[in-house]
Amino acid sequence: MKIRTLIVDDEAPARARIRRMLTDERDIEIVGEAANGDDAIRTIGELRPQLLFLDVQMPASDGIAVLRAVRDEWLPCTIFTTAFAEHAVTAFELHALDYLLKPYSRERFASALGRAREKLRAAGETHEPDSRVAELIDDKKIANQPVERFLVRDNERYVVVRTSDIESVEAAANYVVLHTRSGNHVLRRTLSTLETELDPNQFFRLNRSCIVRLSAIREIQTLTAGEFVVFLQSSAKFTLTRGLRELQEKLRTAK
Predict the structure, then answer these.
(1) CA atoms within 13 A on the CB side of 65
(2) What was the pLDDT predicted at 88?
(3) CATH no. for residue 200?
(4) Domain termination residue (choose one: 73, 106, 141)
(5) What is the DSSP letter of 63?
């Protein structure tokens, strides 16, 4: 059975070089390519590759942001490619990840590919998320950074939702509904988990079941003593149960 492989790099010559190096690898099936982070996120969701060659530095979303976006849907065995040796390589080595430092040799390429084969062979028919990649994503220096994009399934297709497009979020059991400029999307997350992934300088949790973008707030009205309703630019409204003073301070300092 062939290894379904996806190549992600914003430079066409770099993608072509990987493709050439894989030409004679009979157990490799290249199922697609992507030239930027958003396309990579969507393509991983749709094609579900077993092996991913992933450039670290790309426009739109970098390689780490891509993996953070897809982790709940599909986290492939990953070989990173990078032209930057400093912090990235240190992180890869800390988590025993395979990486190719550009310009890399054919021997180095073969070595990384060989280790990926061994890992996939050990996993067998069942797909298990690459634990080393998961550990990298959970590294405190990375996990503490706000998530910029989410991969959301919409019937038979996948949609990349940018946090910059989210106006509000509502809880729905173990899911959340993302209200965006383009429509609503259901994401498999609890509201509490999502709250830790959003930028606290841009989002505020109004109550147990709702988070809103601070810049989307149009006005706050008083219902009764100590009770308030928050109106958004879209005319949506939500009850505020957390302190008004805290929200006022957030609005004052919001980025």
Answers:
(1) 21
(2) 61
(3) 2.40.50.1020
(4) 141
(5) H
